[in-house]
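SAMPLE LOG
Freezer: B-3
Tube label: C17
Construct: single chain, 447 aa
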Amino acid sequence: MLTSGFLGLPSVFPCSLAFVIPIEAACFGGRPGMISAATGAMALVIAPLVKEYGLHYLLAATILTGIIQIIFGLLKIAKLMRFIPNAVMIGFVNSLAILIFLAQVPQIIGTSMMTYVFVALTLVLLYTLPRFIQVVPAPLIAIVVLTTIAIYSGVDLRTIGDLGVITKTLPTFTLPHVPFTFDTLQIIFPYSLALAIVGLIESLLTAQIVDDMTVTESDKNKEARGQGIANFINGFFGGMAGCAMIGQSVINVKSGGRGRLSTLVAGLFLMFLILVLGDLVVKIPMPVLVGIMIMVCIGTFDWSSFKYLVKAPRSEAIVMLVTVIIVVYTHDLSKGVIAGVILSAILFVIKISTLQVIKNGSLYKIEGPLFFASTHHFVDYFKHTDFSECKVTIDFCNSRIWDDSAVHALHKVKDLLLAKGIAVEIKGLDTSSQKLIDRLESITSSH
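STRUCTURE (predicted):
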């Protein structure tokens, strides 16, 4: 078993997962250079299933997760990415940086002075080496140099070996030992669906961030299918469902890894580390890894977001803050993103629901969209207005009728005025508004 301790992930998973998913993602994914494996969000979703039903139900759920993600990819689910506002993206990135940093704190607080020294030395190396050496990534040099110093100096530092045990074995093919019945499907389907959605949210958002970092475009529907294929295969080799890992992906890109080869090498080298260098890996000092992750936090956090809070519209700033707060509080990136999207949609509806009725004699001009959120004001205006005319004209040249609620409100106003003996003329309707009215009236008349 391999414990993913230094990232603060609350999961313990078979070591096969560590390199099966990145290797599969390198072959089938749609975002070159992105690293995928187990994440804390996925572990949080699946933990109750494992606790109640055991490991083999986890494997079955992982296989089903892969199937669902493949279907999502074929249905081009990635097109929903356009509904994620920029404020949510900024909140996602910042909250991730904060979570990564908070996960490092327990590894350094209350430890020895040498822990702080090694963290500081790591940061110095990470920020100075790239000025002189570009061929070998600075984090790799820092790990090798400082691990060597720690081993030969005999400094008392926490190591990876203090967090768990690495089993040096290859993964083996196995079928989940669960009843292949409808009852089993009922048990695992809710978890698999949640895993598929959470995994795709994190993967597609990470893919977008890597796109921005590399100024390239990725095939996100292919990425959805690739994640599905990787999870489907991984379930047969004893691993839990995984998704893109933004911290590792950022390190990879910042170290020069831009293509599929970098993702493949990440998986193969991790296999090499586990199978061949496992005895050395457990001796890597935790302060070195903490220093690397602090560098990732600094590079990941969008420092311009402080200016964004001041300059951006208040609603956008609120959405960003809410996204960050929910993610940091729940330690679940998907919950923060979903909450941010919902809040952004609500604030957008509030913003565009402003409707005005401008009176000019017997002409009443409607300004703003007429839909479910603005119908109340529209009806109230005509309900509480005293009319001296025997005929009024309602002009929709600067408005549009969007839904059934708007059509119903228009009929309600016409009935109110007709009940007062006032004739009503509707003009200025655009083609789509008129088609909607005609269609709904034909449905009403058919009943």
